[in-house]
Amino acid sequence: MSSGNKGLGKVEVRLKWDPSPLRQPPHHLDIIAATYSAEAPYGPPVYIVHYDSRSPDGTINMSRHSRTGQGLGYVEAMTLELDRLASSFARVVVGVAIHQNCGPKTFGDLSNAGVLVVEGYKELLKDDFAQIAGSTAGTVAEFTRDDSGAWEFHGVVRGFDSDPVAFSVEMGSAPLF
């Protein structure tokens, strides 16, 4: 990145939702990030990061994880150090998926669900999933490199009807904006 405009650096994606009602199975959501190479920005992901993994170089990782939504405010968080990602990466797509272990659940079945994307104190995106209420998963952000190598943010809330495994493969297969 030789340009004076370095673009985005360290970004955090935060997720919140209320716990399920008493005596009901817990709602379990996950933040998922998929990285794409410069040679195939819409091809298969180079790697996927979720609650049980981190990027091989440590640039993308989960700093908080919840299986129930219990806690105050945003209970799950993923940190993306875009400024440290190798130049071989051109695109990163971040989404949220609902585990479907106890029957179908959509964003409309959850209460007080929301996502917040920030760089430091700057809010890049805040959304309550209302526009994708009938979906079981959805993208929330796409980060792309411009010609100078600087990372740009695109807020892209788009619904999918997939479980977390299928969603992690299909979430970045087409341009989102």
Give descriptors for this structure.
177 residues, mainly beta, 5-stranded antiparallel β-sheet, 10 strands, 4% helix
Question: Quick summary of this structure?
Answer:
The chain has 177 residues and is mainly β. It has one helix and ten strands.
Q: Rg, please?
A: 16 Å
Quantity of strands, as a count: 10
The H/E string reads EEEEEEEEEEH
Mean pLDDT across the residues is: 91
Uncertain spans = none
The helix-and-strand class reads: mainly beta
User: What is the spatial order of strands in the main beta sheet?
Assistant: 4-5-1-7-8
Strand composition percent = 35-45%
Report the helical percentage.
under 10%
Shape: globular
Separation of termini? Answer: 24 Å
Number of helical regions: 1
Largest sheet: 5 strands, antiparallel
Secondary-structure topology with pairs:
Layout: E1 10-16, E2 29-37, E3 47-49, E4 60-64, E5 76-81, E6 89-98, E7 114-119, E8 122-127, E9 137-145, E10 151-160, H1 164-170
Could you describe the 3D structure shown?
The two termini are 24 Å apart. A 5-stranded antiparallel β-sheet has the order 4-5-1-7-8, with no helix packed on it. The protein has a 5-stranded antiparallel β-sheet with strand order 3-2-6-9-10, with helices on one face. With 177 residues, the chain is mainly beta. A hairpin with a 2-residue loop joins strand 7 and strand 8. It is built from 1 helix and 10 strands, in the order ββββββββββα.
